[in-house]
Amino acid sequence: GGDMVKVGDIEVVPGFIIAETDLRERFSHSSGPGGQGVNTTDSRVELMFDVARSGAVPDRLRPVIMSVLKNRLVDGVLTVTVHDERSQLANRKLARARLVGLLQTACTQP
């Protein structure tokens, strides 16, 4: 069938699939205390998903997600920041997992 989930697409709940293109990523080297020479390979990842405007969000779920995550949304955008791992790839995977976790929790509110 033509409804295969593409690589990079994330299924949050059935019928709610976020395409890779719906996500915005920002990478930054967070400068910790100590300045020079302190783990300059720090690979902070910010992952942003526009809940308010993304066409990926089913209309029936949008108000629910907006309501549940209202304290985390800035102008309708959900941002997850990760700087736990040494590798940027690990952080990117972790950021996606966290983002999806938040959205799943919001979607499955009683």
Describe the structure.
- This protein is α+β, with helices and mostly antiparallel strands and 110 residues long.
- 25% of the residues lie in helices and 25% in strands.
- It is built from two helices and six strands.
- It has helices spanning 62-68, 88-107; strands at residues 10-13, 16-18, 23-28, 44-50, 73-74, 77-82.
- The strands form two sheets. A four-stranded antiparallel beta sheet has the order 3-4-6-5.
- It is globular and about 40 Å long.
- The termini are far apart.
- The mean pLDDT is 85.
Task: Give the topology.
Elements: E1 10-13, E2 16-18, E3 23-28, E4 44-50, H1 62-68, E5 73-74, E6 77-82, H2 88-107
Antiparallel strand pairs: 1-2, 3-4, 4-6, 5-6
Keywords:
two-stranded antiparallel sheet; globular; 4-stranded antiparallel sheet; alpha+beta; 2 helices; 110 residues; 25% strand
Task: Describe, in short, the structure shown.
The protein is of the alpha+beta class and 110 residues long. The chain is built from two helices and six strands, in the order E-E-E-E-H-E-E-H. A four-stranded antiparallel sheet has the order 3-4-6-5. It has a two-stranded antiparallel sheet with strand order 1-2.
The residue ranges in which pLDDT falls below 50 over 5 or more consecutive positions are none
Note the beta-strand portion: 25-35%
Instruction: Return the string of H and E elements.
Output: EEEEHEEH
Radius of gyration from the alpha-carbon trace, in angstroms: 16 Å
Question: Treating each run of at least 4 consecutive H or I residues as one helix, how many helices?
Answer: 2
Instruction: Kindly report the spatial arrangement of strands forming the biggest sheet.
Output: 3-4-6-5
Major beta-sheet overview: 4 strands, antiparallel
The backbone outline, from C-alpha atoms, is globular
Question: What is the structural class?
Answer: alpha+beta
* N-C termini distance: 32 Å
What is the mean pLDDT? 85
Number of strands: 6
Q: Name the helicity range.
A: 10-25%
